[in-house]
Amino acid sequence: MLEMVYVGEKRLVGEVIGINDQATTIQVYEETTGLKPGEPVYKTDAPISATLGPGILSNIFDGIERPLRSLYSLSGAFIDRGANIPALDEERTYEVTLQVSPGDELKGGDIYATCPETRVILHKCMLHPSLSGKVTYTAPNGSYKINDVIAKIQTPSGAEAELTLCQKWPIRTPRPVIERKPISLPLITGQRVIDTLFPIAKGGAAAIPGGFGTGKTMTQHQLAKWCDADIIVYVGCGERGNEMTQVLDEFSELIDPKTGNKMTDRTVLIANTSNMPVAAREASIYTGITLAEYYRDMGYHVAIMADSTSRWAEALREISGRLEEMPAEEGFPAYLPSRLSQFYERAGYMVNLNRTEGSVSIIGAVSPQGADFSEPVTQNTKRFVRTFWALDKSLAYARHYPAINWTDSYSEYIDDLADYYNHEVSRDFLECRQRINNLLNEEASLMEIVKLIGADVLPDDQKLVIETAKAIRLGFLQQNAFHKDDTFVPLEKQLKMMQVILYLNDRCLDIIKTGTALSEVVDLGLFDLLAGMKYEIPNDHPEAFDRLYTSIDEKLAGFHSARHPY
Amino acid sequence: MVQFVGLKEINGPLVVLDNVQGASYDEMAELLLEDGSKRLGRIVEIQGERIIIQVFEGTNGLSLNNTRTSLKGKPMELPCSKEILGRIFNGAGSPIDGLGDVFAEEYRDINGKPLNPVAREYPRNYIRTGVSSIDGLMTLIRGQKLPIFSGSGMSHNKLAVQLVCNSKLSDDRNSDEKFAIVFAAMGVNNDVADYFKRSFEESGVLENVAMFLNLSNDPIIERILAPRCALTAAEYLAYEHNMNILVIMTDITSYAEALREFSSSKGEIPGRKGYPGYLYSDLASMYERAGIVKGGKGSVTQIPILTMPNDDITHPVPDLTGYITEGQIVLDRTLDHTGVYPPVSVLPSLSRLMKDGIGEGYTRKDHSAVANQLFASYARVQDARALGSVIGEEELSASDKAYLAFGKMFERYFVTQGATEARTIEQTLDLGWDLLSLLPRSELSRMDAELVNQYFDPARGERFRGEA
Fold first, then answer.
1. Do A318 and B281 touch (CB under 8 A)?
2. pLDDT tens, position by position, A258-268
3. B65/B5 Cα distance (integer angstroms)
4. Which of A38, A272, A298, A469 is positioned for an S-S bond with A63, CB 3.0–4.6 A?
5. What residues have CB less than 8 Å from A489, skipping those under 6 apart?
6. Are A533 and A494 in contact (CB under 8 A)?
7. Separation CA A197–CA A219 (nearest Å)
8. ipTM
9. Which residues on chain B are in Cβ contact (under 8 Å) with A399?
10. What is the pLDDT of residue A562?
11. Distance between CA B299 and CA B123 in Å, rounded?
12. For testing the chain A interface, which of B110, B280, B286, B372 should be mutated: the one with the most A CBs within 10 Å?
């Protein structure tokens, strides 16, 4: 079962997915046009596996880890079938430093060599988790190709195993770890609505559901570019070809703010566009998460973006339909929830076999049919992720981006992360967050009334809620991905932005309590001032906020206030 | 060549043969009838020595023992040459204009092959359609797939003709880039097909168009082939002759229904609304053939047109299409009823690739700012209208009233235009500024002050003000 095979004279890649006493069912990962009965099937005696070693980063693979750049030079612009080329470049050399010497005892997961894979990432060669033993030979430090033998060990059974720079791992099996650690660090994305209102943790899982045109892919791109993970795995699963090209172009031009090098130095792309074979689309998610786990084992924080898990679920449905399995809800197979949970449960903050710590965070886009969140993929995904960013069509129509709806979204990580926010950012952070949240919710219920009878009839304190919430929406939640300062905003600035909005709110509240009409205050244009602060205050000049406070105080100085400004 | 005499079973468009050896999947087959006529078919399933062939022209008149079948040994191919421009073909790619066969320079597999994402060039230049709402707000980019979501009875056919007749690569007359159109009609009725043919002839663009026509009473199998033949022709012209090809395909809903009919006759398990579970992959295999190959000058741009059954945008066909294509142009029945042509519903429409193909160097530097501001302002119009319908327009605030006036003029002058009128990008953007000048300056929150200073002028809106 699940053995990888080659089918036919062209040696198309396939996988055994069903066996009975007479027949074996094979799922072929390429177009089967021209295949005839009676053609041979070649066994490989191994499950479908990913090759793990240096050379993964800055590469782009298809769903079964075939390097697309090499395919391009081999077979031209259009992908030919049966092209079997090694996943990693076998000719490239790496400067290897051995970390063990003869006589050392090694167990599975231990690091025996390191080499710089790209300018920013040090690759660590780890013993295959199933192996252990005593080192009998080590090669001198120097340049090696990925298949060169750089060390040998004697296993407890007495056999000798040769160690190269790479190893294979079956993509459907999670890589083993010692233990799972509790969640404590946020994955900082620089996107205000995410970091402040609905954060995701390192080692957490999040889902972004949204109908077409709501900005799922745009949000994924922003997260891939700016989140503070060490390694990004971007899986384009059944999505548009032009989009993958865009990711490719943008990432190779983008300078990574953390390292000053190219973004591609710490990124791997997996592209299985919608017109590539559907079975490979199903495998692409597993290939991606296996690569992510491999780098986690080295002690890195990895974020994997899967765009979109719905296409993957549809691939499952398509294959299941062809196998004539009994369908469950909406034609999806009954095992959809268990497959989804198997995938999302591979996220986590782990203590690895070699005692390093690393994390895999999963951010999965969901494309619900007809933007209806009650469909099976969204509903089942909701059960397995703890952060849910619901994208809203009406926000997207009004060009409010990121179109994350603040009433439907949630994050269960906020309590786990409270310590981090309190100690690393500020004691005020969570309180401000809560107040912002309350104001938005209050506005949502007030808007119900406004829709019916207009805003004029509301009392001034409720009008103030609406004004402040508008400032929050325009000035804080809306974020411009194309603006150089606004595309990424550090937590400190996020906090300062919240504080100044709340400060203005409090000042106005005090003023209207004395009987002054709110409209007089609003006419001063202070709320518009707040809407512009995201552009006008550079990320590295937080002191500019003082000027904002000063101008608020100056403009409001003429009003009587119920209490003194603080 | 081996001939197989007789058939085992006939079921709708499918025939079953037994004891066939050496058949391969997707291979072409030729069926010879008693009267000497020939029909083409394709192997869609092989079970041991039993093969199922789908017959393109239908199985009328076939009986179990009057037919001889021979296998061609290769998948379906389209004869390609530059001469296909100006010609009319049926869905299976055979000429139906009486001008004889195409002298082929090359035969191409109509299924195409997936384009390697590494080999794609990211689309960055635009096509000028001459329609303000499209050019201004959802610009069509070369290599993009931008569908039109319409409904039965709306003017999508008129719009399709307008796009075919007026589309250009740019407003620059001296450009030496080559541009041509491939038009695929799937399941359209005779009148509509005739309307297309006549309109193309009258406006003199016919020699620049290759038409693939599948009428609603033609065999459904040819309906499944028609877009593939059209795209194969487009790819050939784009990648072998460096032409920029615009492919217009109408109506995708008929295509999907043909696919459903075919799928159920094969006895497959249906998915949503009876459509086969692989509808997404199948549609993607057509739509994804839009693009630009690195190093070449040609491009394939697609405008698929579909009618939303019951105007329901969540129906599987528009829904799945929207997930694959790079945006959508949505037509709206209320606008259509109020005499707005083309009835483009601006808010749900979107072009995803627009942001990189407009602005300085392509259209004009203020393009994206104008588009964003028009979108945002028009979204405000909807709020003002909703409120106005509850509390009465008289009660609205001054700014809401300004928005109402803006909305009315926007629909009347920006969205609406004549069926043969082609506006340049300059005209479209200037019109956008004229309309924005109806609003108070402080409402233009989405733009740089510099742009507003350059273009904003309340006097520009004067000619509308009296009317509103």
1. yes
2. 778 888 889 99
3. 7
4. A272
5. A190, A191, A192, A479, A497, A534, A539
6. no
7. 15
8. 0.81
9. 372, 375-376, 379, 446
10. 56
11. 9
12. B280
